[in-house]
Amino acid sequence: MIPNIKPIDKLKMDEITNKIDHKTKPLGSLGRLEELAIQLAQILGSEHIDLRQPKILLFAGDHGLTEEGISPYPQVVTQQMIQNFVNGGAAINVFSRQHQIALDIVDCGLVSPTTSPEVVNLRLGSGTQSSLRGSAMTKDQYQKGLENGKAIARKAIDNGTTILGFGEMGIGNSSIAALLAAKLIDCDITLTAGRGTGCDDEQMNSKLEVLKKVLTFHESLDNHEDIICALGGFEQVTALGAILEACSVGIPVMIDGFIMSSVALCAAKLAPHSLDYMIFTHKSASPGHQVIMEHLGKKPLIDLGMRLGEGSGVAVAWPIIQSSAAFYNEMASFADANVSTTDA
């Protein structure tokens, strides 16, 4: 089920950097925009970076681990926020409208099915099981999630999308991300778990105790897919399938904050070259995000202290990505502009 992902074409690095270096600017003066342009040109073509029909896939699911009191918010908030997305009232709706980014809302497994025709139904069940008492999902659910993610990514790409963004919604999923990061990186859960949607000190201590017990329960697992199956969420595994599919066909993927970066971590463990296609859009204020970024050797584009999720960081960073492509495609060279490169 894991697709073959090729490394990006680094043979054209000299051609790409030469094109950038001969534009009408001092060498390196556009900083991170130049680094991003190099990555995009390696993925989409050195002649022209073609960013068309950007789309954010927002995957939603519920988690059995919330039964253990890991979140101060009730599970029903996931369902209520899906309706908010449908009504266009959430932050991701505002930012997507602002920047003309298409948005697909995907029910990967809420406790109660969503009836709105505006929500894509890719349900794997009515929420995962509590990972404190067993595996969060079955192997069949895991495989189906990968297939569902592949299908929705492929549909967007076949319809003309050349860049995909990834967001999520699910009460308790910051704890799921913390578990995945701690297990896959092999670090202490206290480094990856934060306060999520707003735990006070007592709630945070209780949450940490639960997460430690989960890791102890599953400490014998060492296969990456078994770990994802045991600890992950329906929205994470569906997003994982979509990310892997996009990377396999040579489409850049824009990764949101902590939760989606934990999915990117899963992808990198299963298919290391998938990292070549990932753009980490913003630095989350969640402590576990920095742990993942350091492990992957990545630096997010922006740092605004955000920790909302939903794909909000993707939408806010999108104009920067557009600017990187625009200067690469349109900025004149010294020769084109008849500008001297040396002192007279």
What would you say about this model in short?
The chain is of the alpha/beta class. It has one domain (56-327): 3-Layer(aba) Sandwich (Rossmann fold), CATH 3.40.50. Helices cover 48% and strands 9% of the residues.
Task: Tell me the layout of helices and strands.
Elements: H1 13-21, H2 32-44, E1 55-61, H3 76-87, H4 91-99, E2 102-109, E3 119-121, H5 139-158, E4 164-169, H6 173-185, H7 189-192, H8 201-217, H9 224-231, H10 234-248, E5 253-255, H11 258-270, E6 278-280, H12 287-296, H13 312-330, H14 334-337
Parallel strand pairs: 1-2, 1-4, 2-3, 4-5, 5-6
Query: Sheet with the most strands?
Result: 6 strands, parallel
- At the first level of CATH, the class is Alpha Beta
Q: Could you give the order of the helices and strands?
A: HHEHHEEHEHHHHHEHEHHH
Number of strands: 6
> Percent of residues in beta strands?
5-15%
Global structural class: alpha/beta
Q: Could you name the CATH topology? A: Rossmann fold
Return Rg in Å. 20 Å
Helix content: 40-55%
Give the domain tally. 1
Overview of this protein structure:
The protein has 344 residues and is an alpha/beta fold. It has one domain (56-327): Nicotinate-nucleotide-dimethylbenzimidazole phosphoribosyltransferase (CobT), large domain (Rossmann fold), CATH 3.40.50. The protein has 14 helices and 6 strands. The chain has helices at residues 13-21, 32-44, 76-87, 91-99, 139-158, 173-185, 189-192, 201-217, 224-231, 234-248, 258-270, 287-296, 312-330, 334-337; strands at residues 55-61, 102-109, 119-121, 164-169, 253-255, 278-280. Strands 3-2-1-4-5-6 form a 6-stranded parallel sheet, sandwiched between helices. Helix 11 links the parallel strand 5 and strand 6. Helix 2 packs across helix 13 and helix 6 (173-185) runs parallel beside helix 11 (258-270). The longest helix has 20 residues, at 139-158. The protein is globular and about 70 Å long. The termini are far apart. The mean pLDDT is 96.
